[in-house]
């Protein structure tokens, strides 16, 4: 157990997911429980088809578990109406996907602002927060660029700005570096790692990317195979050099 663990921002409790398919029922998540604290960052790794994206959709209340519950900020979402869940998402959750999902004819600041359309914030405040979020991801000079006028890495930065502009407690990212080259991918992860005010869950296939996270949750065949939390290697007693 991590002694520095904070209050849970998001939790799965005994979550199972079964899809009904033409060839019978398919259970893709089996009694999964995890908790990610406020400000904590975790990588989810596992083979293709192991249930990672299903788990992220359920964490993000985009999909419903067959059994178990999802709690966001200690609030159970199981009994919420669709409207309550969508309000919860627009207030507390941010999403980043492999594809950037930006509107092509809208500039960067407009794309970020549109993410807050249903937030209840006034237009001027939405614009202010959108500009602030774009500054935070290093795109202060690109506010009026449309997606075609941005590199892949820059487009993903806009998507990250959109995910954080409404100041959510939790950011969920499904293969956010999947469409980028290695170097650009690493710079996106460096940017994510600086978001110390959000609970962050990042799905990745890439072991090098996962290695950048202290907490690594391995999922296999719908179950948590391991959940390691490597504490920083500081102050070793034998005086040996510590890995950076
Ligand atoms: N709507 C659905 N109906 C039926 N089966 C589904 C549905 N969605 C996902 N599955 C199945 O659930 C399993 C887990 O899928 P999921 O997308 O969560 O895997 P993943 O770990 O994200 O894989 P990848 O690394 O390839 O993205 C797969 O076998 C998939 O075929
Ligand atoms: Mg997936």
CATH superfamily of the domain at 41-51 and 81-229: P-loop containing nucleotide triphosphate hydrolases
CATH architecture of the domain at 41-51 and 81-229: 3-Layer(aba) Sandwich
Could you state the order of secondary-structure elements as H and E?
A: EEEHEEHEHHHEHEHEE
> How many β-strand stretches?
10
Ligand kinds: adenosine-5'-triphosphate, magnesium ion
In CATH, what is the class of the domain at 41-51 and 81-229? Alpha Beta
Shape: globular
Structure description:
The protein has 244 residues and is α/β, with parallel strands linked by helices. The protein has a domain at 41-51 and 81-229: P-loop containing nucleotide triphosphate hydrolases (Rossmann fold, 3-Layer(aba) Sandwich), CATH 3.40.50.300. It has helices spanning 52-59, 82-92, 108-114, 123-136, 152-164, 182-193, 207-210, and strands at 8-21, 24-37, 41-45, 67-72, 75-76, 93-97, 170-174, 199-203, 215-220, 223-229. The strands form two sheets. It has a six-stranded mixed sheet with strand order 6-7-8-3-9-10, sandwiched between helices. The protein has a four-stranded antiparallel sheet with strand order 2-1-4-5, with helices on one face. The radius of gyration is 19 Å and the shape is globular. The model is unreliable at 238-244 (pLDDT under 50). The structure holds adenosine-5'-triphosphate and magnesium ion. Keywords: ATP-binding, Nucleotide-binding, Transport. Residues 10-244 form the ABC transporter domain.
């Amino acid at each position: 157990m991590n002694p520095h663990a904070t209050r849970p921002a998001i939790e799965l409790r005994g979550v199972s997911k079964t899809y009904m398919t033409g060839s019978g029922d398919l259970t893709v998540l089996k009694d999964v429980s995890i908790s990610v604290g406020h400000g904590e960052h975790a990588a989810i790794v596992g083979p293709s088809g192991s249930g990672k994206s299903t788990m992220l959709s359920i964490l993000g209340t985009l999909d419903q578990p067959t059994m178990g519950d999802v709690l966001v900020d200690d609030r159970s979402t199981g009994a919420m109406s669709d409207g309550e869940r969508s309000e919860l998402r627009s207030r507390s959750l941010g999403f980043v996907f492999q594809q950037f999902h930006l509107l092509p004819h809208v500039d960067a600041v407009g794309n970020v602002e549109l993410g807050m359309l249903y937030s209840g914030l006034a237009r001027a405040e939405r614009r202010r927060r959108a500009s602030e979020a774009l500054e935070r991801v290093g795109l202060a000079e690109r506010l009026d660029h449309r997606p075609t006028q941005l590199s892949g890495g820059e487009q993903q930065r806009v998507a990250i700005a959109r995910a954080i502009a409404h100041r959510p407690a939790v950011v969920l990212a499904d293969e956010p570096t999947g469409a980028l080259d290695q170097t650009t991918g690493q710079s996106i992860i460096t940017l994510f790692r600086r978001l110390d005010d959000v609970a962050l869950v990042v799905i990745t296939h890439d072991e090098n990317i996962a290695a950048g996270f202290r907490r690594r949750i391995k999922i296999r065949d719908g179950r948590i195979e391991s959940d390691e939390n490597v504490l920083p290697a500081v102050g070793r007693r034998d005086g040996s050099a510590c890995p950076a």
